[in-house]
Fold:
Amino acid sequence: MSTSDGLPTAGTPAAAVAEAAVPAGATAHPVASEQVVVLDYGGQYSQLIARRVRELGVFSELLPHHVGAAEVAKRKPKGLILSGGPASVYADDAPRLERELLELGIPVLGICYGMQLLTRELGGEVQAADVGEFGRSKLTVTESGRLLAGLPHEQTCWMSHRDTVFAPPPGFTALASSSESPVAALESVDRDIYGIQFHPEVVHTPYGQDIITRFLEDICGCERTWSANSVIDDQLARIRAQVGDGRVICGLSGGVDSSVAALLVHRAIGDQLTCVFVDHGLMRKNEGDQVISAFRDHFHVPLVAVDAEERFLARLRGVTDPEAKRKAIGEEFIRVFEEEAAALADRDGGEGARFLVQGTLYSDVIESGGGTGAATIKSHHNVGGLPDDLEFELVEPLRALFKDEVRAVGAELGLPERLVWRQPFPGPGLAIRVVGGEATRARLDTLRDADAILQDEIRKAGLYRELWQSFCVLPDVRTVGVQGDERTYGYVVVIRAVTSDDAMTADWARLPYDLLEQIASRMINEIREVNRVVLDITSKPPGTIEWE
Ligand code: XMP
Structure:
């Protein structure tokens, strides 16, 4: 009833699959028999390790280091990776290595702190060195061993540590060194334990992916069977098993997460799903129409589109404080959504939807405790922040996926490129970008026009996907200018464009001068209300991405 990797095939009878399927949302992982667990010791690159493993076609889950060997064993992993972490192995409160993890009968790879833990636990020598090693380092392979076989004698690697391994544990072989690390890699083939001081998961270690491949394929014996696309069939079966013939509702925001989640659910259960798209009048130009036409006309998903612009603008009247704006929008959103859910229930003879689709991603799951089932899951605010007490059972088909995997699934499901690659857009929309004042329709329209020009030019320049976000801000400031022979007194538009991996930190994007000039001149020529354009060159920190 399944392929060799345990994933149901497209042709598998649904009933047979349903029998074996676990309700979506019960665990973070799909039915993948081949997986490698990454234990997270708090390193800044831990998520990246899991992503790299997945990129190589092996499913990988990131679990907090304290989950215990039994929790790891439940997943029947083919290998275990211990991540890096900020602690010193000698600190009193440093995370320890549970010995049972080494008795699971699977290969173990320690990275950075993970290697130091292994070394200390097994009788090697780890010490705080006088000099730390941060950034690029030259790695010299002294003994290829099993882990580094086939790699060049000398290569660059990325280091980030102060504690250093000076001698491997008894029975282990030192494989490599760097200027500050006498032992930068080690292994014991007999015990199937491996360690590297550097970070193979970052791009600055050019042979990093080769090393991870060796660990996965040659050492753990994993087959490359997992892909974001292989998840689709698995999720379809899970959704059907969870929902049965129940009714399902989904708040569609136009963002990639809710769009992909909605499409997956629709493919699984068809018209048992109804999507609700609340147009709060704070979207970008034509955005609402694009969402409606993609879902209703192209995918034929039952869709209730609510034009709630008047309501939201009325609610925002006189509101200038950023948090007050967010609160007003959030509350209004919930009210509209609840009304629509009730109207749908009435239409269906009183029987409302029992299930609510949420586009929760794996990074949300990790942030809220690692998907072990122990932690409460952070409520997802993509659709504007639905409260916890809504009486729905959640359907979360993206809980196992990273953002780039969600995009891959979206593309496979035929979601238009524009929606697949849409940059993040905040729930309160443009209301928090007309800053220092009230979000009136007139100001929102000016901002919408400016934003449309910015997006158009950035797309034409081929830069849209490279930027984490690009948008305009409209402060409540007017300045003097001169156009033709006339003095003008118009609004200032701010261009904000940032690069980022996760929005926690961000750098202002170095947009080409010619492009900036073209954007500025179009805005001033095409939008009567605007007579000045400025560029925000603040990174995060100290700034935030949004202005409010
Ligand atoms: P900041 O401005 O805090 O933004 O650097 C980080 C990321 O979060 C987005 N953002 C929001 N998203 N509701 C949302 O759904 C909000 O109220 C909100 N505020 C900021 C922001 O666009 C950026 O991607």
In short: Residues 1-31, 371-384 have pLDDT under 50 and may be disordered. The chain has 15 helices and 20 strands.
